[in-house]
Amino acid sequence: MKKLFSASVLAAGLALSSFAHADTTLLNVSYDVMRDFYKDYNAAFQKHWQAEHNDKINVQMSFGGSSKQARSVIDGLKADVITMNMATDINALADNGKLVPENWVTRLPDNSAPFTSATVFIVRKGNPKALNDWQDLLKDGVQVIVPNPKTSGNGRYTFLSAWGYVLKNGGDETKAREFVGKLFKQAPVLDTGGRAATTTFMTNQIGDVLVTFENEAEMIAREFGRDQFEVIYPSVSAEAEPPVTVVDKVVDKKGTRAAADEYLKYLWSPEGQEIAANNYLRPRDKAILAKYNDRFPKVDFLSVEKTFGDWRDVQKKYFNDGGVFDQIYNGQ
What we know:
- This protein is of the alpha/beta class and 332 residues long.
- It is 48% helix and 14% strand.
- The protein has 2 domains: 2-115 and 242-295, D-Maltodextrin-Binding Protein, domain 2, CATH 3.40.190; 119-239 and 300-329, 3-Layer(aba) Sandwich (D-Maltodextrin-Binding Protein, domain 2), CATH 3.40.190.10.
- Helix 2 runs antiparallel to helix 12 and helix 6 packs across helix 7 (173-185).
């Protein structure tokens, strides 16, 4: 009996020892045009973590349309961090279940957005339909591939960029509604996210123009070849500021806050910013941005909050059920 007891204690001790030294695992729930960036970034962070802590860390990823991803976390997906392409999707975590605090955006630099991006047009080689600015997308017969603004931040930035284009050119809200309504009527399909829209355009060869983020253009080039398309920068682009945050309720329960905090803060490190630039995301570090200015054309960025107001108000007015997008898309 004594031997059996000793063996049990030994086994339990080994199990506890193994548990104590188990690798930390983080789940990053992100949007679907960031696959390549996080593939590079996670590998770099794991090396950094190993060097700093003499321990291993695992990073698991989940990708999809940004709003669908946020909804998954609200519904119980145990994300340690969430890395979205606009504030509305993280605000949803504060508003539904208090998964993050109301002031989450102030906890990291630059409104918690480690880089920025522009909206671009991907057109067929030679730009056969001469699609150079927003008004060209409304030409008769032009098919526009863009994801659904109800499920995709990519789609919302397209909506706001086109709306801002009308305002900047002297139009009022009525003109903007007409313009953006016609733009989305030119879309033969509304995919749920940016990567699905890329598949529609590049793999299925549907549409004349894909509206997406500039970093997605580089990913398309790597996958399909640079001779398959051209990139056009329109005259107006809403500045995409993809924010990040820890999911407080999850990390506190799992005990992963310190690792999750370090994972996000490293995005602002010189290495994190270099990886961003190499994946055609505009780094916040001015010296690194200047180093790569050949790949980041100057853009007349439109500030969403200065033009449209607080992100919560933008979401409620334009993209919630029954909002402006639903109204104009359904012909109301």
